[in-house]
Write a structure and sequence with these properties.
313 residues, alpha/beta, FAD/NAD(P)-binding domain, seven-stranded mixed β-sheet, five-stranded parallel β-sheet, 21 strands, 31% strand, elongated
Length: 313
Amino acid sequence: MAQSRHTKVLIIGSGPAGYTAAVYASRAMLQPILVQGMEPGGQLTTTTEVENWPGDTEVQGPDLMVRMESHAREMGAEIIMDLITDLDLQKRPFTAKGDSGTVYTADAVILATGARAKWLGLPTEERFKGFGVSACATCDGFFYRGQEIVVVGGGNTAVEEALFLTNFASKVTLVHRRDELRAEKILQDRLMKHPKIETLWFHEVDEVVGTDSPLGVEGVRVKHVTTGEITQIPCKGLFIAIGHAPASELVKDQLDLHHGGYVQVEPGSTRTSIPGVFAAGDLTDHVYRQAVTSAGMGCMAALDAERWLAEND
């Protein structure tokens, strides 16, 4: 027989938003249950050096997540390694089913399932992730001061990241498989006028090349989409900027979404379109996507949930 668990606050997801929500909900004596999901710790567990987390000049992403999990446990949160496969938000208590067979019921739900960068799917891309291949210019651009960088993509994200990376790089090459960008015109104008940026049309990345010891990128091989001609571009960093996919599958038919699947929250809060359901972190954030902003939203979600429960219980 399936086990059933009830909690005042069920937190789904275990990145900075989920763990911070668990800390605040625990301090409010809500005895939250946090279900970690498929990747405990979220995207930071695949990141090496983190230099923009306040209080740490440098910290390893996995170490930071271990510390945050430990903090949440010490505050009193119950953290369970399980994967929520079904979530019913149509009536209270809300009901979630875990892959383990456990059924979780909750008076309030905080969604912190995050988002994942879209990747090219190349074996060599996977090999150099965190060692020259990145999907976050704000996170990793600092490491490429005075170096040549390649950015892949044609939308707002790609153009914004290329422009941002000129603060560090000696040269930025933007690789796009078409001959025109999807980015806003004002961004395109800035890109075309920038002396550090070169645009390579009708090309796609075919392979990432680098060294084994130490592990690092030395260049990328790009292929012309019509002729198939291969060109190698020397670079120390490859930034993939072809979009992000928010992990909103559980709620796509229940909550209001926008910007390609991000959960919509009321401005200045974490309240979703269903009372008692709150969302925080990259699941809602198509603009900043930073660990520190996710943590801040986790705090907001726990406080919003606490107030909502006090008003409705």
